[in-house]
Amino acid sequence: MTNFTKTCTAIITTIAVLALLSTAEAQPTKEKTQGPKVRVGIFDSRALAMAYYRSEAFKDHLKEMHAKHEKAKTEGDEQLANELADEGPALQELIHKQGFGTWPVDNLLEKIEAKLPAIAAEAGVDVIVSKWNIVYRQPAVEFIDVTDLMVKPFAPDQATLTVIEEIQKQDPVPLEKLKRHQH
Question: What is the pLDDT of residue 24?
């Protein structure tokens, strides 16, 4: 299990315990609603996807994939060439799911894993989760949008920041609709 997976598991466990403790009574007491709040950082995963997939790091990754593919073809390694050729459409499908829908962005979070504690500290939050994964909220939980802080590590240019701003104004595309429009 990677450190990132362990961290996610710990965060989910912490949230589950907090939810269990906060729902122990049917009616929240004045003390619970006026006590210290749990501050949860939320982010729009589509923005994170747009920031990464439009970044120089991703462009470099594509160049590397293309070079490996060309090398495999040149060296006559058909199996590797075919495997690498299949990665393109699979990657395109992932980009659509993450960039326009609510598909998990774990692969992108791994790229900024080391920066997450600093992002949480800067935002003053106890936990960071995708805004698409929230199904219930106690009054003692305060949500803080950390999307802007989450995309910063990918150094988005102004055009990407505009795309990110615009996509956040739209509802996510349902996964079923994305599946119907695959190429």
Answer: 44
